[in-house]
């Protein structure tokens, strides 16, 4: 496959762009693979990529029921940060954030990583104390964050109203190297790199059953026929419960709908990401100029990629108080994704009760930022049977009561 | 927007009047139960793409808890019923069977099975 470069752009411009190749092949499935990954979202593709890159395992298929990146990976608001409270979370999210720094070079694919900085606003005394605590924890974990006062917030975000009547801005947790990336490009970049290593990425191929013999996985049934494998990775976010049921086990996961919306494009007005967790809203400005806004989840199990209307109203109402200038904006689009929520709001990267099956799920409302770190760790777990980054995220934490509680630290975990 | 009929006060309440309370008909395990039972009770939840039974509270209304049967895939509401029962009424199960032949949910089975 030809590399992308400034030279390639010039060459193609000179010949009317007739020489671009398909970024990844779309083959028919083979009879058998060493590893099958179910789900071509960011986490599934990154797992496949690092299986090949770090462990030389390339007889791999990634099966996707819809289109590549059409799940939450293509539906999220792309916030990348690693300012979590617990050590296990900081380790995997910071690994991911640092891999984002060089992802475009590594994949030879521009994922538009933009470390523009992320502020999490403290709008109650409780949040001030909470974020100060997180900043101290981050200092010990080697994650660079800082608690800043309201004046500094105003300096970074001139359009913010710091003395709103209901929720004044009392400060914020600032991560300078947090930011955003182009979500589709992350999926496409990994897919291209996987395809280049000889892996098969098979779209429109829904897994409908999981076959095992004597407690060990032997393959899957799909809408494109049965395919055998030695190891199976389930990386299907909101559909994890459905896949687990096929394999005969249960997961401590419930699926909810989370929505986002974007405004009409406007001139550049905000060059950092702002999260306001107390009022459940967060906002950034895309390169096209749209204000990208995320809101709350529905409170009940839901597999529709929509979400309830009143959440939009709540989110926008709260943001208008903090950003008065957006009150005149028209909203263009709204959509939802099915997020996989665990009890402690931390992910699951684990061996499953069936031999040869591994699960990677539970990223819930905040897993885009984790894609490279999660893929890195999941590949190690699948190749070697254990990984230092996944140790604490096993399924056994629920029976042993060893939670990685991030729900208290952040009301919203995007 | 989801609208559920409160079986206690008779109001057709919309979502913002209600609070979702999670999976219905859980068997509670307390002191003396095994780790697995306790884990199951606390964390493992039915998460079907389809027929689901849940607890709901008419929080901004009469305040009472009740049960609802819903489809999580289409958001169709099959019906609501009293909180004082251990399983959905037979006629509601029959109604669901007519619409979703072969449905299953935990240890409750459709009448056609
Ligand atoms: C509105 C919204 C905003 C968000 N904002 C942020 C944010 O700002 N920052 C952040 O870090 N995270 C955010 N998230 C969370 C983030 O999007 C997810 O955690 C992450 O994308 C999950 O990636 P994934 O690869 O695990 O899942 P997905 O991208 O959902 O991929 C799973 C894939 O599995 C496929 N699949 C399912 N069942 C089957 C089957 N039976 N057979 C074959 N394939 C199957 C699906 O079609 C899907 O493509 C947000 C999520 C939403 C919905
Ligand atoms: Zn009522």
UniProtKB/TrEMBL annotation, chain A:
Can you give the residue ranges of the Rhodanese domain? 35-79
Q: Which UniProt keywords apply?
A: Cytoplasm, FAD, Flavoprotein, FMN, Nucleotide-binding, Oxidoreductase
Which EC number(s) does the record attach to this protein?
A: 1.5.3.24
Give the GO biological process terms.
tetrahydrofolate metabolic process
Where does it mainly reside? cytoplasm
Which GO cellular component does the record give, naming just one? cytoplasm
Q: Which PROSITE patterns match?
A: RHODANESE_3
Q: Which InterPro entries match?
A: FAD-dep_OxRdtase (IPR006076), FAD/NAD-bd_sf (IPR036188), Rhodanese-like_dom (IPR001763), SoxB (IPR006278)
- What reaction gets catalysed by this protein? sarcosine + O2 + H2O = formaldehyde + glycine + H2O2; sarcosine + (6S)-5,6,7,8-tetrahydrofolate + O2 = (6R)-5,10-methylene-5,6,7,8-tetrahydrofolate + glycine + H2O2
Q: Name one GO molecular function term.
A: nucleotide binding
Pfam families per record? DAO
Where in the cell? Cytoplasm
Q: What class of enzyme is it?
A: oxidoreductase
Q: Does Nucleus count among this protein's keywords? A: no
Family in the record = Belongs to the SoxB family.
Q: What is this protein called?
A: Sarcosine oxidase subunit beta
Q: What organism does the UniProt record list as the source? A: Thalassovita autumnalis
Automatic annotation (TrEMBL), chain B:
A Pfam family found in this protein is SoxD
Q: Which GO terms describe its biological process?
A: tetrahydrofolate metabolic process
The entry lists its GO molecular-function terms as: sarcosine oxidase activity
Q: Which domain of life is it from?
A: Bacteria
Protein name per its UniProtKB record:
Sarcosine oxidase, delta subunit family
Q: Which organism is it from?
A: Thalassovita autumnalis
Which lineage ranks, top first, belong to the organism behind this chain?
Bacteria, Pseudomonadati, Pseudomonadota, Alphaproteobacteria, Rhodobacterales
